[in-house]
């Protein structure tokens, strides 16, 4: 009987979310947490202030990932996080930047992947939902929640990856991320605990420079090889070094140049 009730609740929640995702009203107002938050009370962080921050990581030459993370010291079971509402404003100083807004890409490998509701919605200023993932400045809403009556994946004390923002870039670009409350709603950045309390965490924004090297990796490799060949010849001819010593210098400088060419 209990399993049937939970199954019915899941079906009902899925239908509601499907309806909301195609609703123009929902499109203009953002992720509506009013019904969810009606079950919560406004409070303060149970322990020291939690922090939401991000880390930039290059995945390939034309793909960068911004990892949105949460550091929390909420230790008690009733203080675990089961809801996150994270409105962001993202800017890019060059064209050719595209954000992957699929839920699977955004939340795979994170605790939110198992939550009942999760979103990655773009709201381009002046346009209806869905916003264009190629237009900046961009308003992005990420987060979601787990049901109060079926909590299965709460977030306790620790440092967690909440979302992955995957950007495709075509040239060196500065991407800046900050939080915002400009979704025509009253709710700012917030977290919700298992004991039905919502609170405002700290936010640490900033910028990163994804970009693409001006030379390809093979071009840098060839340049490094020619430079190393010249250095080896120079030391061997001018310094009268033995062949093993020259070969050792060659390997050392070659390794250094290859590392630099790969990390630029």
Description:
Helices cover 30% and strands 31% of the residues. It has two domains: 2-208, Sandwich (Immunoglobulin-like), CATH 2.60.40.680; 217-263. It has six helices and 13 strands. The chain has helices at 2-21, 24-29, 34-37, 103-107, 217-238, 243-263, and strands at residues 41-42, 51-60, 63-72, 81-92, 98-100, 117-123, 138-145, 158-168, 175-179, 190-193, 197-199, 202-204, 206-208. The model is unreliable at 5-30 and 211-215 (pLDDT under 50). With 264 residues, the protein is of the alpha+beta class. Strands 1, 4, 6, 7, 9, 10, 11 and 13 form an eight-stranded mixed β-sheet that branches. The termini are far apart. A hairpin with a 2-residue loop joins β2 (51-60) and β3.
**SS-based class:** alpha+beta
Percent of residues in helices comes to 25-40%
Strand content: 25-35%
Shape: elongated
Task: Summarize the main sheet.
Answer: 8 strands, mixed
Rg, Å, rounded: 25 Å
Sketch the topology as an H/E string, one letter per element.
HHHEEEEEHEEEEEEEEHH
Number of domains: 2
How far apart are the first and last residues' alpha carbons, in Å?
60 Å
Name of the level-1 CATH class of the largest domain: Mainly Beta
**Gross CATH architecture of the largest domain:** Sandwich
Poorly predicted segments? 5-30, 211-215
Strand runs, count = 13
Average residue pLDDT: 75
Count of DSSP helices? 6
Fold-level CATH name of the largest domain:
Immunoglobulin-like
């Amino acid at each position: 009987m209990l399993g049937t009730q939970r199954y019915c609740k899941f079906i009902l929640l899925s239908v509601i979310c499907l309806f909301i995702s195609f609703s123009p009203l929902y499109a203009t107002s953002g992720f509506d947490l009013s019904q969810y938050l009606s079950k919560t009370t406004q409070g303060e962080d149970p322990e020291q202030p939690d922090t939401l921050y991000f880390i930039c990581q290059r995945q390939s030459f034309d793909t960068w990932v911004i990892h949105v993370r949460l550091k929390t010291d909420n230790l008690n079971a009733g203080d675990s996080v089961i809801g996150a509402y994270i409105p962001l404003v993202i800017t890019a100083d060059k064209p050719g930047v595209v954000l992957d807004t699929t839920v699977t890409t955004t939340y795979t490998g994170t605790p939110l992947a198992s939550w009942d509701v999760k979103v990655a919605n773009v709201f381009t200023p002046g346009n209806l939902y869905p916003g264009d993932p190629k237009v900046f400045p961009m308003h992005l809403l990420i987060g979601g929640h787990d049901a109060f009556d079926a909590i299965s994946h709460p977030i306790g004390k620790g440092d967690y990856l909440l979302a992955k923002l995957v950007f495709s870039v075509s040239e060196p670009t500065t991407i800046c991320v900050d939080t915002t409350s400009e979704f025509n709603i009253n709710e700012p950045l917030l977290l919700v605990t298992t004991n039905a309390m919502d609170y405002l965490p700290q936010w640490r924004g900033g910028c990163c420079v994804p970009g693409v090297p001006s030379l390809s990796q093979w071009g840098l490799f060839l340049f490094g090889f020619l430079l190393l060949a010249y250095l080896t010849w120079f030391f061997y001819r001018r310094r009268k070094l033995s062949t093993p010593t020259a070969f050792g210098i060659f390997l050392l400088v070659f390794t250094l140049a290859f590392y630099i060419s790969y990390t630029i």
